[in-house]
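Lecture 7 notes: from sequence to structure.

We start with a single chain of 270 residues. Read the sequence below before looking at the structure.
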Amino acid sequence: MEKGDIIRWEYDAWIVEDGNEELFDTTNEELAKEHGIHDPTVKYGPMYSIVGAGRLIKGIEEELMQAEIGKEYIVTILPENAYGERDPKLVKIHSYREIARKVAERDRNAVPQVGMEVVIDNKRGKIITVTPGRVVVDYNHPLAGKTLKYRFKILEKVEGEVNKIKAILEMDYGKDVDKFKIEISDEDIIIEVPDICKYDSSWSIAKYMIVGDIRDYVANKNIKFVEVYEKKEEKKDEKEESEKSSEESESKEDEDKNESGEKEIEEEKE
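Now the structure, written as tokens:
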């Protein structure tokens, strides 16, 4: 693999500690269920990533750069190449009142508890101690100081501009990707967005990430997002009823004419 390649891959990841292994992430839904880490909000299955984009931990980035398509690898990643060592300076003490107020902003019935995640000054942390007067929050990454083991396989390297754009849509947005329509010319990339984007607040953020990734990893062209609002069509039932009514009206007019004609003939005979 080379820096900037877009790949589709699958993986399983464990925390290795004191000779034990604990699965903490996987693209395999059945394995997630088996180990009790299944998240119904997560989309399981092979995922797309950009090699060398700095979005994966350093150890995995390095392994992917050396990997071959279709070959399975099992690697151990030490903390310095994963989420770093734990930093004692990132463990902070807060007043109970401050943390209680923050927790109540999210759920007014909730109270600070050990293991609860909180966001203070735009920093995410986990509560590790609660006493009547104070709360201790650890702002280290949950996997800081952990040795990790990965089993992974690259299934394919994405080729072609259209396929790369679809992969980026999957990475950065992930909804109804098959419903996006893509046209590419010498100067422009035109993306017709599906109806879900018109009413989804997350789309307004995702599209800027999509633009950046397309320019960096596909082509530096004009990128145009198109929303189409199709004209309202007359309902079939109403149209058929209208045609039926028109036919009945014409038929009645013909009958009236026939009756009138027959009456005139009878009068002439008399």
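The chain has seven helices and twelve strands. Keep this in mind for problem set 3.
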